[in-house]
UniProtKB/TrEMBL annotation:
Top-level taxon of origin: Bacteria
GO molecular function: 5-deoxy-D-glucuronate isomerase activity
Enzyme class: isomerase
Protein name in the entry: 5-deoxy-glucuronate isomerase
KW RNA-binding (keyword) present: no
E.C. numbers: 5.3.1.30
Keywords, in A-Z order: Isomerase
NCBIfam families: myo_inos_iolB
C-alpha cells in the first residue's frame, strides 16, 4: 500500500506542491492537487471527458472564467482561518475553468470520475451550508461545499475547523464498504492546514482487523490519504486545525458506521459531562 502521508513538496513551475492521483494513491476515484499562486499567475484547468473538478479557493482572489463565461473577480478570504465560507468552482466533465490570481492564492483542485450530468457552476458562500458538530473536546465547525444533496457525479467536498486540544472526525467512523443504506465505500483525502503554520496535528488510519494501522503527524499543507478504515484527527495545544476533505466512490452518498468502542461519545452521557 502507498504511503498514506503526502508531505508538502517544493513548488513546481506551475506553483503546485501536492499531486495525488488514483494511480499514485493506489485507489480508483479521488485525485487532489494543491497550488500556491502569486498575483498574476494564470492557469486553465480542464476537467477532461471523464472527470469532474471542484476548485476550492482556500485563500485568495482570482479573475475567473468558467465554461467560457467570465465571472469577474471572485474569492473573499485571504486566509482559511478567517473561517468565512469559501468560493469554489464545480467544473463538469469536458469543461474548463481559467483563473488569474489577483492576490496570492492557495488553491485546491479536487477531482473524481465525471459523466457531465450537471453543468459547471460557481459555488458561492451563500451556497455553502455551515454547521457545528460535537460537544466538549470533540467540537468542530463544518462548511459543506459539495455535500451529497448538491449536484455532482462523484465528488463530495467539505472543510472542517477544529480548535486546539480537540478531536475531529471522531468518534472514529469509517466508510469503506459498498453496502448502502448502511455504509458507502468512499476514498478520502485530508488536506491539512495549521494555525500558526509551524504546528502539526495527529491523524490515525486503522481497521478493525489491524491490517491497516498508521499514525501520522500532519504538518501545514500535508495530505493524508484514507483508503479504508477509521481516520480520527487530534489537534495539539496552541494550534488550530483546518482540513479540506475530498471523497468519492461507487455511490455518491456519505453513509458511515461508528467504531463501536467509541460511539458513546455521541451519547447524552458525554454531552452531560461537558455541559456542567
Amino acid at each position: 500500500m502507498p504511503d498514506l502521508l503526502s508531505k508538502k513538496r517544493e513548488l513546481n513551475q506551475s506553483g503546485r506542491y501536492q499531486h495525488i492521483t488514483p494511480e499514485s494513491a493506489g485507489w480508483k476515484y479521488v485525485g487532489f492537487d494543491a497550488y500556491s499562486l502569486s498575483e498574476g499567475d494564470t492557469h486553465t484547468f480542464d476537467a477532461g471527458s471523464d472527470t469532474e473538478l471542484c476548485l476550492v479557493f482556500v485563500a485568495g482572489k482570482a479573475d475567473t472564467t468558467l465554461g467560457g463565461q467570465p465571472l469577474g473577480v471572485i474569492g473573499e478570504r485571504l486566509d482559511p482561518f478567517e473561517r468565512t465560507k469559501p468560493y469554489s468552482l464545480y467544473v463538469t466533465a469536458g469543461d474548463s475553468a481559467t483563473i488569474t490570481a489577483v492576490t496570492g492564492m492557495d488553491l485546491a483542485v479536487c477531482s473524481a470520475p465525471g459523466r457531465g450530468t450537471y453543468p459547471s457552476r460557481l459555488i458561492g458562500p451563500d451556497d455553502v451550508g455551515a454547521e457545528a458538530r460535537g460537544h466538549g473536546n470533540n467540537q468542530r465547525y463544518v462548511h459543506n461545499i459539495l455535500p451529497d444533496d448538491k449536484e455532482a457525479d462523484s465528488l463530495l467536498v467539505v472543510e472542517v475547523y477544529t480548535d486546539e486540544g480537540c478531536t475531529s472526525s471522531y468518534p472514529s467512523h469509517k466508510h469503506d464498504r459498498d453496502a448502502p443504506p448502511e455504509e458507502t465505500q468512499l476514498e478520502e483525502t485530508y488536506y491539512h492546514r495549521l494555525n500558526p503554520p509551524q504546528g502539526f496535528c495527529i491523524q490515525r488510519v486503522y481497521t478493525d482487523d489491524g491490517d491497516l494501522d498508521e499514525c501520522m503527524a500532519a504538518y501545514d499543507k500535508d495530505v493524508v490519504m484514507v483508503p479504508k478504515g477509521y481516520h480520527p484527527v487530534a489537534t495539539m495545544a496552541g494550534y488550530d486545525s483546518y482540513y479540506l476533505n475530498v471523497m468519492a466512490g461507487p455511490v455518491r452518498k456519505w453513509l458511515f458506521t461508528w467504531e463501536e468502542d467509541h460511539a458513546w461519545i455521541n451519547s447524552p452521557v458525554y454531552e452531560e459531562k461537558h455541559s456542567r
